[in-house]
Amino acid sequence: MATKEGEEGPMHLKRCSTEKLREIFTKYATQEVNGELYMTSDDFVRGFLGQSYNEESVTLLAGIADTSKDGLISFAEFQAFEGLLCTPDALYKTAFQLFDRNGNGSVTYSEFVDVFKKTDLHAKIPFKLDGPFIQLYFGKDRQRTINYAEFSQFLHDFHEECALEAFRMKDTSGSGFISALDFQDIMVNVKKHLLTADVKDNLVAVTEGHKVSFPYFMAFNSLLNNMELIKRIYLNATGGNRTEPITKDELLQSAQTMSQITPLEIDILFQLTGAIHQTGVWWKRRKVIEKNRRIVYGDLSSIAPEHYTKHITTRLTEIKAVESPADRSIFIQMLESTYRFTLGSVAGAVGATAVYPIDLVKTRMQNQRTGSFIGEVAYRNSWDCCKKVIRHEGFLGLYRGLVPQLMGVAPEKAIKLTVNDFVRDKLTDKQGQIPRWGEILAGACAGGSQVIFTNPLEIVKIRLQVAGEIAGGAKVRAWNVVRELGLFGLYKGARACLLRDVPFSAIYFPMYAHTKAAFADEEGYNHPLTLLAAGAIAGIPAASLVTPADVIKTRLQVVARTGQTTYSGVIDAARKIMAEEGPRAFWKGTVARVFRSSPQFGVTLVTYELLQRMLYVDFGGSRPAGSDVAQAKQELSKVNPDHIGGYQAALPMLNGIETKFGLSLPRFASTLKVPSAKQAS
């Protein structure tokens, strides 16, 4: 069933409106016939798609949209092809229309041969076009035609047959073995759609230079074809945990329920991950290492073939600071920390502003003492506090103390995020794994480091926030608080601040990392909404469990009014609060604290990671998990802004025909876009 205008296809591509599509069509169409505009083959392929194929290839590719096969593309045909690109089987339909030269809805043997002989695959791997495989589909006399459904199966089987034909061609002696270099040649020329950069670079290494048997060749290809199934087997073995390392035996045990996966494929998987992560001693000790080797989900993602229709975050900048991780100097690492600090500052300010009213309510609830005092406003609960602040101080009263908060929260959040990333980087091994204790330690270090900014910020903010509670009191300004306290006074309650911030970060960052991994898609990619959810969820236990320390800190930093209890330190405050108000007092403001910290860190972390995605700088170090995408996907995201609706998938589909089926058509040496005649004029 065709996708209607405005609807979304299975790839979540929304159909373009007729008006907008006609506007784009008119922009590129240069041929006018009987008062109606048409696109020529050159307009469509070189102008609109921006692809630099030779003349023969341009004609073939334009024929995909030119269903009337008259050499011109009408608006109706242009719109119909846009709709086709939104269908779930767009890749196969596009390939079918490429081979259906006369547009009659079927493919003949001569049509197939005519197109196939023009591809690079035929030039590299000559295929027996009169052999038994072709006869099975087109008949012994090759007069049978095949429809779309049959063609889709034929194209899939044909590509597999090409690999087998290539193996037979390389195996000149008929021994059932080919050399490692021949194996590499076949994989690169016939099966390149299955190869990630890591796999491609290790095709010879994984064979250890030995000859490749036919069973090994088949198992290797089967493994790469079934990587999505391997991922499910891994998740089944780990209970959905993407960071838990598992051994070969554990993966084999889980794979028993999947008859498609063989022990040889599992062996190759571990050999391949070992080759990718090899060190100077790996090959010397590989037998021992393989026996005890463990893999994680990230290893599978580095091997799994790319999905060429994957959408990623648009990058505003893309800078490569180093050519390889080996080039990371001390200066580059300092630049990386500065980069993270800057982005963390922006993210912290965004997060703090978003939840500041909740923070003000939390502070006033925590400072409320048992009993009634002259001039003190009594709050029944957080909602009552919010209403009374607005009633007595106006809406802007909810943002009392925001300016000093932003001045301090930017470096505070920045140093927390930077230190956490820095320590995690140092404790992460070459396979990208970090032990649980390392995650906790990184978070604790981040929490401890931020106190240098947090404490002065907190004491000024708190005194400004509670100032509005005194009816008719003098207006309190941030600078006056700083002058009154002095340098050492700004660090009053620092011990309580450490008592709160160190465990908070030690809980928060590991939980965020694991929650984010759990919310990632099958490729390990995190959508911004999953980042927000992970950040918010991780904040719930972290914020609630350290509330007692936060209450003590608040009491120490607030100026006690007449009749209120004073405290000399953390232990003294804890004893007096327990004696005078009971254990429940330690949990005052818990709800407000959770409602403030949870969304604040959710907003902060999603902002921080999205900024790293959009303002991309490659320092040769680690990137936030869930944000990395393959280079091919990055390149496909840089498309013509006129490629809207279904045409967002046009270039990925052409790429898919070339990579998945190996049907690359000849191009010019230049890759520059050739403008249409109308644009040139």
Structure report:
This protein has 681 residues and is mainly alpha-helical. Among the domains are: 177-305, no CATH class; 330-369 and 377-617, Mitochondrial carrier domain (Mitochondrial carrier fold, Alpha/alpha barrel), CATH 1.50.40.10. It has 31 helices and 9 strands. Strands 1-2-3 form a 3-stranded antiparallel sheet. A two-stranded antiparallel ribbon has the order 4-5. α9 (148-170) packs antiparallel against α10 (180-190), α20 (402-427) runs antiparallel to α22 (451-467) and α24 (494-519) runs antiparallel to α25. The longest helix has 38 residues, at 330-367. The chain starts with 17 loop residues before the first helix and ends with a helix.
What does this entry show, briefly?
This is EF-hand domain-containing protein. This protein has 31 helices and 9 strands. By secondary structure, it is mainly alpha-helical.
List keywords for this structure.
681 residues, mainly alpha, Mitochondrial carrier fold, two-stranded antiparallel ribbon, 31 helices, disordered N terminus, EF-hand domain-containing protein, repeat, metal-binding
Architecture of the domain at 330-369 and 377-617, according to CATH?
Alpha/alpha barrel
Question: Termini separation (Å)?
Answer: 41 Å
The share of residues in helices is 55-70%
Q: What name does the CATH topology of the domain at 330-369 and 377-617 carry?
A: Mitochondrial carrier fold
The major pleated sheet works out as: 3 strands, antiparallel
Low-confidence stretches: 1-11, 279-289, 371-375, 629-637, 669-677
Strand content: under 5%
| Average of pLDDT | 78
Categorize the overall geometry: elongated
- What's the assembly state of these chains? single chain
Q: How many DSSP-defined strands?
A: 9
CATH class of the domain at 330-369 and 377-617: Mainly Alpha
Report Rg: 32 Å
Report strand order across the widest sheet.
1-2-3
**Computed structural class:** mainly alpha
Helix tally equals 31
Classified in CATH, the superfamily of the domain at 330-369 and 377-617 is Mitochondrial carrier domain
Organism: Aedes aegypti (Yellowfever mosquito)
Protein name: EF-hand domain-containing protein
Domain EF-hand: 87-122, 158-193
Family: Belongs to the mitochondrial carrier (TC 2.A.29) family.
